[in-house]
Design a protein that fits this description.
single chain, 6-stranded mixed beta sheet, 3-stranded parallel beta sheet, globular
């Protein structure tokens, strides 16, 4: 698992890792998978692609891992595509919804999350149909993450014969938002789709309010709503698309199991990131237990894909019952707090 354990996106990486570790430790304490213990190696990449490449190369060629698990980010995942293609090591449950990870040709990639295109559809529907906006701008992280989400947002706007009034960008792992803020305020937009990490997005929203600029906002699930809302200190209207339901309000038995396990591990404020990491670990474990040892990649990928058809929990959490080709997208709101 290569993820951000430090830097501006560290909350994401740390909480995903913690949620996965809780489930894996639970399985190991019960005897493991077919008698084998799960070893989750984690390396810090600080949400920087060069370090992700170094970590991944070590995992594949030195550690000889069975799978790459829970990698965090689009630019980081994009940077290791050559390594994935060369090695064919399974790349499981990346924390990204970028379209290149959903291509059918990538047989060694397994996704649970909805794509950023799915999230973009939900956001534009909310802004245009529900909030009646026509002047929409984009505040975008200037890298592959920003580009892939921007592409989805543009496609959805085009369905309403709209296009972004203005697109402003900022540098990854920075808080330099002032120039983009001034550009968007001057453009006359009434709503902004945000694409970035929680700290710079929070700074953008707070600084905009200080300038008497109060558009409606949306953000994709890469920014956990709990972390973004903690950064916002001003009255704002924000909708965040989410990939898993809120475990604190979910009444399902599996949600209750998750909450009990978090409490047993002294995690008093469990959130969606913990939950997603926990579900990812559960999915891996359920697939792996149906494979003989030593674990073969072909069996692991086959069993993971069968979960989408046969596993009641996975289907309920991730698949749209009315349209099995779509994944569920949930919402979180921050309204004038």
């Amino acid at each position: 698992m290569s993820t951000a354990l430090s830097g501006p996106a560290q909350n994401i990486g740390q909480q995903l890792h913690k949620g996965s570790s809780v489930y894996f430790n639970k399985i190991n304490n019960a005897g493991g998978i077919n008698g084998a213990q799960i070893l989750l190696l984690v390396a810090n990449d600080n949400y920087e692609p060069k370090q992700t490449v170094n970590n991944t190369r070590t995992f594949i060629y030195s550690d000889k891992v069975d799978a790459l698990f829970g990698a965090m980010g689009t630019p980081t995942s994009h940077a290791i595509i050559p390594l994935l293609e060369q090695s064919q090591v399974p790349f499981l449950m990346p924390f990204s919804g970028a379209s290149f990870l959903y291509e059918k040709s990538r047989a060694n990639v397994f996704n649970l999350r909805a794509s950023y295109n799915d999230e973009a559809a939900e956001q534009i529907k909310y802004l245009v149909e529900e909030r009646k906006h026509t002047k929409i701008g984009l505040f975008i992280q200037a890298d592959e993450f920003g580009l892939y989400v921007e592409s989805g947002l543009r496609k959805e706007l085009a369905k309403y014969d709209l296009s972004p009034v203005k697109v402003a960008r900022y540098q990854r792992n920075s808080h330099d938002v002032e120039s983009a803020l001034n550009t968007l305020q001057a453009s006359g937009v009434t709503a902004i789709c945000l694409v970035g990490t929680y700290a710079p997005l929070g700074e953008f929203i707070n600084s905009a309010h200080a300038k008497n600029f109060t558009p409606d906002y949306t953000s994709v699930s890469f920014v956990p709503s709990s972390d973004l809302f903690d950064e916002v200190t001003t009255p704002s209207n924000i909708m965040v698309t989410e990939i898993v339901p809120n475990p604190l309000t979910c009444n399902d038995d599996f949600c209750n199991e998750f909450l009990a396990d978090m409490l047993a591990n002294k995690i008093t404020k469990p959130n969606r990131l913990h939950f997603e990491g926990y579900i990812n670990a559960m999915a891996f474990s359920r697939a792996a237990e149906n494979c003989k040892l030593p674990l073969k990649r072909s069996c692991l990928m086959k069993e993971l894909n069968s979960l989408l058809i046969n596993d009641k929990i996975i289907k309920k959490l991730f698949l749209d019952i009315e349209n099995q080709n779509k994944r569920n997208v949930y919402r979180s709101y921050y309204v004038n707090k």
